[in-house]
Each structure stands twice: as C-alpha cells, then as structure tokens.
Amino acid sequence: MDIVTRFAPSPTGELHLGHAHSALFAWRRARAAGGRFLLRIEDIDIRRCKREFEAATLVDLAWLGIDWDGDVRRQSEHFVDYGRVLDGLARRGLVYPCFCSRSDIAASAGAPQGPDGPLYPGTCRGRSASERKALIEAGREFCLRLDCAHAAAEAGPYSFTDETRGRVEGQPLLFGDVVIARKDTPTSYHLSVTVDDHLQGVTLVTRGVDLLPSTHVHVLLQRLLGYETPLYAHHRLLTDENGRRYAKRDRALTLRALRESGASPEEVRRRAA
Ligand code: GLU
Predict the structure, then answer these.
(1) pTM assigned to the model
(2) 20 to 30 A from 240, CA-CA: which of 2, 141, 166, 251?
(3) Distance from the alpha carbon of residue 28 to the mean position of ligand 1, in angstroms
(4) For ligand 1, is residue 207 a contact (CB within 6 Å)?
(5) Probe ligand 1: pick from 211, 214, 238, 245, max atoms within 8 Å of CB?
(6) Which atom of ligand 1 approaches the CA of 19 most closely?
C-alpha cells in the first residue's frame, strides 16, 4: 500500500519550530517510502484564520525544502462535504442540538473532567423534538453534539494502532458528548479532520502527542461512517531549552524570524529534528 501522509496546519499565526518538526516528520515519512505528502489548510475557524498566514505557511515550507503533492486542500471550501456527513449522522439520531452556553456548562459543578475541560453534562440530550424545534425557531444559537453513548453502542469496541504505542483501545466516552458542529461553523475540528483524512486517502496520520486523545474520537467517527482507520504516529512535541512547548506567541522562533536573522534552511531543519 502506498503511504500517504499530510501536514495540516491552522493558519492562525506564523509557523514556528514546532510546526517545522511536525511538517518534516510527515514529509520524511512519505518521501522515504516513495509515497505522497499532502498539505491541508485547516481554516474552519473563519474568524481566527487569515489568508496572509496561509500564504506565509506555503513560503515557509518551500523555504525549508518541503514539497507537497497535488493541490492544497483548504477546509473552508469544503463545508458541503462536512454538512453531508453531519446530515447522515443526524438522520441516524447520533447528534443533537445543544443550546447551552459556556457558562451554563461551567456552572454544572462536579462534572467529570475530559481532555478539554469539564465533560458536557448532557443537559440538552433529552430534549423532545418539539422543544428543540421551539428553541431553534426562537432564534437560540446551538451547536451539534455527538451522543457518545449511542455512538459507542453503534460502533462497538474499537482500537487503533499508534506506531510507538502499539494497539490502543478506543475510548469512545473520553470527550463525552463532544461538539461535532460548532455554533459559528457548520463543522468541527474532529469532523473535518476525519472526513478529510478519509477523502484524501491518508494512510498514516502523523501529529503531535497532544492530539492523541482526539484520535479516540476520530476513530469512533471512522467506525460510524464506515471509513478505514489509518495508522497513527503521534510524535513528541518539540520544546525550548526550558522544556516549554513552542507556541504561536514565540515570535523569535517563527520560521520567518529565523530566516530573516540569517539562519539557513539546513540549520532550521537540524534544530527542528
Ligand atoms: N490543524 C491541527 C493543528 O494545527 C492539526 C490537525 C491534525 O493533524 O489532525 O493543530
């Protein structure tokens, strides 16, 4: 089987050394095996993503010597794809509208914690169809949540393979009733990543270990949607000399700043290795 990897940055800032590490990791795996390396721009958050950061991303990657195959897929141009999948999940009764605000959820003291904070207490799960209709008609904003217990029952037990960790047992309830379409965007990170990795034929998903918990949701969605599960490689996160993760706030370590201070692509590749 041909190996297909991808790098999927969100254009909310400039790329830094941590991104270079991640991009090189995916690119090398594809190139070493004579496979394909894809570039995907994850810009579903239209308010935070900027075209200038997207353009800068392409410049930075090219400067580093990273080339990609085929067209760049820009998620904001594919809301129709995600909407179609969402409709299918809704028809199967696997998602429900949630009208709660952040503060409603924060107020539900004692809720167990998930990887992203308190798990959703399920307030809107049991609403009747007429109640939902009335709230929507009254103009109340809502997101869509996955009914994870229902989804787990439909999907059955599942697992995935991480290259360094081996077989990982799927935990469908890890994030609780996770948001699958946001209030402001007709999709979510989890949904669009899962749909795109499938549509693009990605066989090896490489990304930072900070996203390992999310993989439990993605593989659950793959099961529900009848998609193949790719192989995963969650790599360590690059840290600075103080052991801190690189972040968008580290201006001095953006690839552009390094380039402008005279660093060569080889030097940056070495630092990012
Ligand atoms: N867009 C995500 C990020 O920039 C990465 C998505 C993924 O690799 O699954 O953190």
Answers:
(1) 0.95
(2) 166
(3) 18
(4) yes
(5) 211
(6) 4
- Strand 36-41 and strand 73-74: pairing? parallel
Sign of CA dihedral 95, 174, 227, 4: positive
Q: Which residues of 173-188 are buried (b: 16+ CB within 10 A; e: fewer)?
A: bbbbbbbbbeeebbbb
Place of tokens 């081996």: 166
- Ligand 1 proximity of 168 Cβ (cutoff 6 Å): no
Digit-coded pLDDT (tens) for 3-51 = 999 999 999 999 999 999 999 999 999 999 999 999 999 999 999 999 9
Q: Nearest 10 degrees: CA dihedral of 46, 187, 9, 223? A: 180
User: Which pair of structure tokens corresponds to residue 232?
Assistant: 């995963």
**Ligand 1: distance of its center to the CA of 125 in Å?**
29
The pLDDT tens digits of the residues spanning 176-232 come to 999 999 999 999 999 999 999 999 999 999 999 999 999 999 999 999 999 999 999
